Amino acid sequence: MIQVYDSLTRQMAPFKPHIPGHVSIYTCGVTPYDHSHIGHARPAVVWDVIRRHLRRRGYVVTFVQNFTDIDDKIIRRAEELGRPVDDLATEYMAEYHQILDHLGVMPPDYAPRVTENIGPIVEYIEALIQKGKAYAARGDVYFRVKSDPEYGRLSGRKLEDMLEGVRVEVEPGKEYPGDFALWKSAGAGEPAWPSPWGPGRPGWHIECSAMSMRYLGAHFDMHGGGMDLIFPHHENERAQSRAYLEDEAVTLWVHSGLITRGDVKMSKSLKNGVTLGELLDQFPPHVLRTYLLSVHYRSPLDFDERYIQDWSRALSRIDRLWQDVREAPPARDVADGDWAETLVGFEEQFLAALDDDFNTARAFAIVFDMVNAAHRGIDQGNGEMARGLARRNLAVADDILGFLPEQPGTGAMDEALLQSVVSARDGARRERNWAFSDALRTILTDAGYEVLDGADGTRVHRRSLHDTN
User: Quick one: average pLDDT of 345-359?
Assistant: First the structure.
């Protein structure tokens, strides 16, 4: 059974989805006001591995990751650059998607934007007011934190301690300094949407409560994000959802550790982050991806280019074996010996490591042990069997961890051609021209892409090299 650490209870818990065989996941995405940095990549890669492992274990996974595309930071940044807010957000969202594609991260099933969900957010706020959990004040709407007796449980904070020793001037209309905004009235010239309380925009926290319910239902299995989101974002989100549902919305809260540089958190606001574009100019995507998986997802990861170089050298051991075994036929016989036991039992041990709270560090240790065992088998004259088993094992592990580099000549399309084929296929499907649609699917799959059909059209992502072998 899969065991997952729950941030709310602070203990391991057996994973039991609400709907047998189906997993529903919501994670907080980025606020697209600047270039994405490595701190944004870590949770994305972690959740990609979680999704791939759950899928390997036989689950159907529905994954939602939002974009906070309206926010004070975006507005200020757009003003600095003299650009429309929507254009700025759309540009950085596209960059984020492109870079995650380079890192082998599957696209989410749904990627809702706050600005496309204003209606459901307003309805959610209205319901909280009707329940007496929120109140309007001078065009703003605030949540009553004292209405939730469990407020602070997720973050381990007491409400009275949050304001102790701090002089807080209560904003006009606020009943209590700790109450937080659900709706913010618009300032002069700011983007705004109509509401019962006047023109404005959603507060930061309400968006996730409303959008998770819209796309996953009232109750879902896992909510993810970085540990820096536990307070105030996820604490406030949990309070809203409990008030709305009179029940817990989330079964398991799952948080990834932060990336630090000299023990200081990397962030855009601190201006100490390294952009993903800069790192991808220095390191191959598979090296950067797997460096983010080299420690357990809940542990902090200290960033240093030298550490990535060391990790790249370690990965080269796996790649050299892959080059040797990638054309090997399946093993027919199994010899005796510790090396053979390691190769034969690899998949069970590898998946068991990931069953234990998605322990990628342990999973990689098992991969490296298997690589060593394969070399021992080859050196002892059992090359055919060792190569056949190693090929199978590397394919299994790479499908989840993504440690093998893309090879030249694999047929990948440039971005413009890929989008052209996808657009043509969507058009063929709308016109019910199934023969042409199928022909375009074949072109995409032959080029190494997995093709997914959904209500929003064709979605594609690069497959592992071995998937077609």
Answer: 98
Q: Are 192 and 50 in contact (CB under 8 A)?
A: no
Average pLDDT over residues 146-168: 80
User: Which residues is 201 bridged to in the sheet?
Assistant: 184
Average pLDDT over residues 406-421: 66
pLDDT digits (tens, 9 = 90+) for 70-94: 999 999 999 999 999 999 999 999 9
Cα separation, 112 vs 142, whole angstroms: 24
Number of Cα atoms under 13 Å in the Cβ half of residue 397: 34
pLDDT for the residue numbered 386: 95
pTM of the complete model? 0.86
Residue 104: both structure tokens together: 């082998």
Residue scoring higher pLDDT (101 or 161): 101
Region of poorest pLDDT, from 84-98, 128-142, 155-169, 216-230: 155-169
Sketch out the chain's domains with CATH numbers: 15-265 (3.40.50.620), 325-401 (1.20.120.640), 415-468 (no CATH)
Q: Would you state the torsion angle of the CA atoms of residues 436, 450, 113, 55, taken in this order, to the nearest 10 degrees? A: 140
CA dihedral 297, 298, 302, 303 (to 10 degrees): 40
Distances in whole angstroms, Cα of residue 452 to Cα of each of 39, 108, 351, 459, 463: 28, 11, 25, 5, 12
Residue 395, beta-bridge partner list:
none
DSSP state of 19: B
Cα–Cα dist 387/320, whole Å? 12
As a whole number of angstroms, the distance between CA 61 and CA 52 comes to 9
Q: Report, as an integer, the average pLDDT of 11-27.
A: 97
> How far is Cα of residue 214 from the mean position of the Cα atoms in its chain?
19
Measured distance between the N- and C-terminal CA atoms of the chain, rounded to whole angstroms: 30
Q: State both tokens at 150.
A: 């469990």
What one-character DSSP code corresponds to residue 28? -
